[in-house]
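Journal club side-thread
Mid-discussion, someone asked how the predicted structure for our own chain would compare to the paper's figures. Pasting it here so we can look after the session.
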Amino acid sequence: MNTTLTPWTRATLATLLGGVLEGNDANVIAIKEPKNATPNDLTCVLREQYLPAALGSAAGVLVVSKDVKIPTARAVIRVTDIESAWVLLLRAFTPNFDRNPGIHPSAVVHETAQIESGVCVGANAVVARDVKIGAGSVIGAGSYIGERSSLGANCLIHPNVTILHDVQMGARVLVQSGAVIGSDGFGFQRTDDKRHIRQEQIGGVLIEDDVEIGVQTVIDRGTINTIRIGARTKIGPACIIAHNSSVGSDSLLIGAVQLAGSVTIEDRVVMWGQVGSVGHITVGSDSMVTAQSGISKDLPAGGTYRGSPAQPIRDQLRLEANMREIGSLKEKLQLLAAKISELESK
């Protein structure tokens, strides 16, 4: 991340990207799309079809793959892996909001909390009893860290996040605003007289290294056990992980995925937006579930699933194709019935 007040130069960016600068060195103010770029800006050519627009722009320097041919005299940074270069560029130009170490005067930090070096606790944040916060972590303004919870090194908790008691986080976890972690699940027991008695949730939450959690996402705690979100898993905005549900490592839950209680998502699973599930099912490793699917039973590992109820995508596509034929089949049946009626009347 660019933590200095001076702009990047083309040469320093080339070094950062592991690339080679061709042309003069100069300052770079920002990354821009070709249509908005100025001579002080950089534009990144992620696909070769974008090259004409980049060449026609006013951008001072282009970042391109090493084998791309440039027909004009332009300053370029040639890189081996353009996708990785793009990620590094975005990190380099990410605004460096308040991450200066220290505790804001308006923050409330309990005397038993253990705060390691380089931690930033923002305005009006609350750090409760027996909390541990690892070195270099940032607690955004208005966030709450509950009793006995712990954060590893270099976590980034955006403003207005709620992390309740007994939540354990690894290193480099990112949680975006409005997320609630460690909430009680929707658990009630029905009595003989048809009332509903609250069932307390007294388990915990374990979030492993390099997990990212999106805006307004809710992750409930376990009823008596600790639920797990595996390392490097990314959870998008507005997702719900209900009580006793766990997600394995390297999985992607892409927006508004809602898992009922006691669901097990294994490793490297991808779920698109608005996937929902019943409780007490397992989705096997390396599976993909497409958008707006409803999972009603276990899904074996390695498959791609679609529909409600979710089924292997080939079966669902065949069913959808057949449904599109229903209208014409109905017309044919009506014509056939009319023909039979005509024949019977003779």
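Post-session note: Residues 316-345 form one domain.
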